[in-house]
Amino acid sequence: MNDVATALGRLEELAIEVPSWAYGNSGTRFRVFGTPGTPRTVQEKLADAAKVHELTGLAPTVALHIPWDKVDDYAALKEYAAGLGVGLGTINSNTFQDDEYKFGSLTSSNEAVRRRAIDHHLECIGIMHATGSKDLKIWLADGTNYPGQDDVRGRQDRLAESLQEIYAALGDEQRLVLEYKFFEPAFYHTDVPDWGTSYAQTLALGEKAFVCLDTGHHAPGTNIEFIVMQLLRLGKLGSFDFNSRFYADDDLIVGAADPFQLFRIMHEVIRGGGFGKESGVALMLDQCHNLEEKIPGQIRSVLNVQEMTARALLVDTAALNEAQRAGDVLAANAVFNDAFYTDVRPVLAEWRESRGLPADPLAAFKASGYQKKINEDRVGGQQAGWGA
């Protein structure tokens, strides 16, 4: 394996963006659950996110969702976040909750609906200018439930036209990242169901448009690390949404279903030049903590990414290349297994302590009294959550 000290040295490059909505109330598709201490404002969401970064050193930025996180003064919000020790990151649009979007948003055949959706994204770009955010992330619930319900080719054409207008409004340092999901909520077809569709649309837009890969948005058995490799090879991987899934849904803690898959993904990220602050690939969480506590859930998530990144950095690439050239299947596979099965948790605890961080961030959070304090302080008001 690679030298542990050398591998851990590269961990300084690891930064994981956390989403503001992960700290609000969420639930299954049938019920949203309230919990004590849930934020009532975007400022309280930022405070919770800052606690995750304080204890882990891994989460320096927070993604915002519009309109859930709308405020009157975004410059003031940026200053407030900086005072907490975090920055404002990706701006996420929302065209999946208004009644007007029942039959689509950027793909709608209704020109007025399409105009509304485009204008919403232009508003998001204005917010990006105020916050200093670099990425506009678009996920669309657009699709159909029945064959013949709409012209599926026409919807792709309208999507391309809508994206072109949004893309043209981006600043020089801003990017558009287009997410995909193979189904849900549409049951017959989804307008951006796979990486190929997202790639085709972003390729047509230009060099400031990229694909966002959500690790939970694939059919069972999909080789996600192959997609990661291909998008890196093509120069079109812009960002990750890290989460996990067991059956049809997603948004569970990353690595919960298949830690080895997360390891394999991070290996391709590192091998393909997608790791590090200068790589252009943003690593983000996209999770909803329904049963577990929200702040510990985010801490667990970023630690899972750190652990699998550390293991991926231990892959002996020289030995791997030699085995691959020799056609030695078992030796090549053993190189992967040696790195994956290495327990890096003790050395990661030492790594954190050497940087003034708690060896066990989850235990430190529990001992901090922070949860008890916010439970007492956040009584009353409207809790943030889906639809808020």
From TrEMBL:
UniProtKB keywords: Cytoplasm, Isomerase, Manganese, Metal-binding, Rhamnose metabolism
EC number: 5.3.1.14
Keyword Glycosyltransferase: no
Pfam families linked to this entry: RhaA (PF06134)
Matches recorded under SUPFAM superfamilies: Xylose isomerase-like (SSF51658)
GO molecular function: L-rhamnose isomerase activity
PANTHER family with a match to the protein in the record: L-RHAMNOSE ISOMERASE
Name under which the protein is recorded: L-rhamnose isomerase
Protein source organism: Pseudarthrobacter quantipunctorum
Species lineage: Bacteria, Bacillati, Actinomycetota, Actinomycetes, Micrococcales
